[in-house]
Design brief:
about 240 residues; alpha+beta; Jelly Rolls; Arc Repressor Mutant, subunit A; four-stranded antiparallel β-sheet; three-stranded antiparallel β-sheet; about 45% helix; globular
């Protein structure tokens, strides 16, 4: 896959306009490809191996396990996302990463990243933007769990996913393919699977959105945005700031 066509380049291109040389640097950064089957762990909590990944295709989830076995999903990653960046900087990984579907990733070592930064500071700036945007998303998720009602929380999450997927040309205002289960949504949003099922049924009956058979269908985009009080400015998708 050419860098100018890769989800990774599309994502960073939302912040910084990339030259041909910078796209070549990104292509080199994605040259070491690996595949993982669904459910096969990519990164585990406590791992000391200094390795991160760029997700080229498929979906993964990041999560933490409590001592009693309970799981809190921190986020879902889609094509174009950087996986395990903190594991390159921390002494050990502080979370687990597991494929939701079969995935293809590019393995990145710390030396690869430093060389990319040396060759192209603008690529480094783009990665800093991506990490900052991911932090903004986590803040929004914390607000959702702490202050939004369950129905608003799920609606907001579906809109956020749609906006993220649109950035890498995997969604439209009418909807998108989504491989997540209700159990996964429950673990991400601090709800039970039964509660998620009831909320999704209510959104469908309200003719706002339907999530069935691996597809999210948006029936009333503006209505869903208004109901969830969704302000996508925290995603910072309005076009490159650095020309």
């Amino acid at each position: 896959m050419l860098a100018e066509q890769s989800p990774f380049a599309m994502k960073l291109g939302a912040f910084v306009s990339l030259s041909g040389d910078e796209l070549s640097t990104m292509e080199l950064l994605q040259s070491r490809r690996k595949k993982f089957a669904a459910g096969r762990e990519i990164l585990h909590q406590g791992q000391s191996k200094k390795t991160a990944y760029i997700l080229s295709s498929g979906w993964v989830c990041s999560y933490k396990l409590l001592s009693g076995g309970a799981r809190q999903i921190v986020d879902f990653q889609i094509p174009g996302d950087f996986l395990g960046l903190r594991s390159l900087l921390f002494r050990s990984a502080d979370h687990n990463i597991e494929p939701v579907t079969s995935v293809e990733v590019s393995e990145v070592q710390a030396t690869d990243l430093l060389e990319a930064f040396r060759k192209s500071p603008r690529v480094g700036t783009g990665l800093l933007w991506a990490a900052s945007r991911d932090e903004a998303m986590l803040v929004e998720h914390l607000v959702g769990i702490g202050r939004r009602g369950a129905k608003e929380r799920v609606a907001h999450f579906l809109l956020e996913l749609g906006a993220r997927l649109k950035l890498v040309q995997l969604s439209t205002p009418l909807g998108y393919a989504c491989p997540l289960t209700q159990n996964m949504l429950a673990d991400a949003m601090g709800l039970t699977a039964i509660h998620v099922n009831r909320v999704l049924r209510e959104l469908r009956e309200d003719r706002l959105a339907t999530f069935q058979h691996g597809m999210v269908t948006i029936h009333d985009f503006d209505g869903l945005v208004a109901f969830a009080d969704f302000d996508k400015s925290y995603l910072d998708h309005e076009g490159p700031l650095l020309k």
